[in-house]
Design brief:
This protein is α/β, with parallel strands linked by helices and about 325 residues long. It is built from 14 helices and seven strands. Helix 8 (about 140-150) packs across helix 9, helix 8 packs across helix 11 (about 195-205) and helix 9 crosses helix 10 (about 175-185).
Length: about 325
């Protein structure tokens, strides 16, 4: 089992770690980004809420000879986790919002319908499972989750089928849930499995991924020193929308209010960041051929400005 980090060269070219810097990998996972960041000679703090990821990082931590510090927890809590290490400022932060291959490829974790396993999906191994949601939520709430987090247009049909099936017996496994979803949805012409969007939605809800991203972006913007960079890799449109909107606002690139809007008379605060790059970064065809999981990845980055700096930032 191996985790291949996506857009690795592109991430490093934007993060530009230097030997005397202090950096954060907010999603340690398999340590792919961490290894490359540490190669610069810097100090790296790495967060993961999965205890298995922290355990896997022990060997890399030994090899880094005191320059790698592993912290278990959610990256949305990075301020608190770093404060416990007496760190209040960073020179760069990278966030890979995707699910680790170690999680996807372990049937016991219940993230994927490629294997039969318990319907779990918890990154931290704590709290309610996906099985708890599908077996106990009201039909309308379940449909809302599938639509909001999976952009599943057939969410009501799927929720109705789930509720009907669970009335007979609890839904306990990944393959069982996938079969229920496929029973009400025709195969997608794109080749994407009909269960994909629903599994994504349940995983996002189980792990409060949207809330975690929003908290992490705000925390990161307050931790970065002048010249510090935030580099984020997302994997679906919902994540990317949140990242794009946050970075656009941080860089002062929101459209000016209408001249009829009284709010337009108020002073607009100077931007604290600038956007990096002329456009959204996507993986190359060769990377996608080598690693199919890179297909949906998207990269965006911003840099913290000095208080007195002005710029003409480029659009993302």
């Amino acid at each position: 089992m191996k985790h291949v980090p996506v857009l690795l060269d592109e991430v490093m070219s934007l993060l530009t770690p230097r030997p005397d810097g202090i950096y954060l990998d907010g999603t340690f996972g398999g340590g792919g980004y961490a290894r490359r960041i540490l190669a610069s000679g810097c100090t790296l703090y790495a967060i993961d809420r999965d205890p298995a990821a922290i355990a896997r990082g022990a060997e890399l931590m030994r090899d880094a000879a005191g320059r790698l510090h592993l912290l278990q927890g959610g990256f949305g809590d990075m301020v608190t986790l770093l404060a416990a290490e007496d760190i209040t400022s960073l020179d760069g932060i990278v966030l890979d919002l995707g699910v680790s291959s170690f999680q996807l490829d372990d049937p016991a974790r219940g993230f994927s319908f490629r294997f039969d396993g318990p319907l779990d999906m918890r990154m931290s191994l704590q709290g309610p499972t996906a099985a708890d949601l599908v077996n106990h939520l009201p039909e309308a709430e379940l449909a809302d989750i599938l639509y909001q987090f999976g952009e599943e247009r057939a969410s009501r049909r799927i929720a109705k089928a789930i509720v009907a099936r669970r009335a007979e017996a609890p839904i306990a496994t990944t393959l069982e849930l996938a079969r229920i979803i496929r029973s009400v949805l025709p195969p997608d012409r794109s080749g994407i499995d009909p269960a994909t969007r629903s599994f994504q939605a349940l995983r996002i809800k189980v792990n409060d991924e949207i809330g975690e991203i929003e908290r992490a972006l705000e925390a990161a913007s307050n931790l970065l020193a002048p010249g510090g960079r935030l580099v984020v890799v997302s994997f679906h449109s919902g994540e990317d929308r949140i990242v794009k909107q946050f970075m656009t606002r941080a860089a002062g690139r929101m459209p000016a209010p209408s001249r009829h809007d009284p709010g337009g008379l108020l002073h607009r605060a100077a931007p604290r960041f600038k956007l990096l790059g002329d456009r959204l970064v996507r993986p190359s065809a060769s990377e996608i051929a080598a690693n199919a999981r890179a297909r949906s990845s998207r990269l965006r980055a911003i840099e913290r400005l000095a208080a007195s700096e002005n710029y003409g930032g480029s659009a993302a």
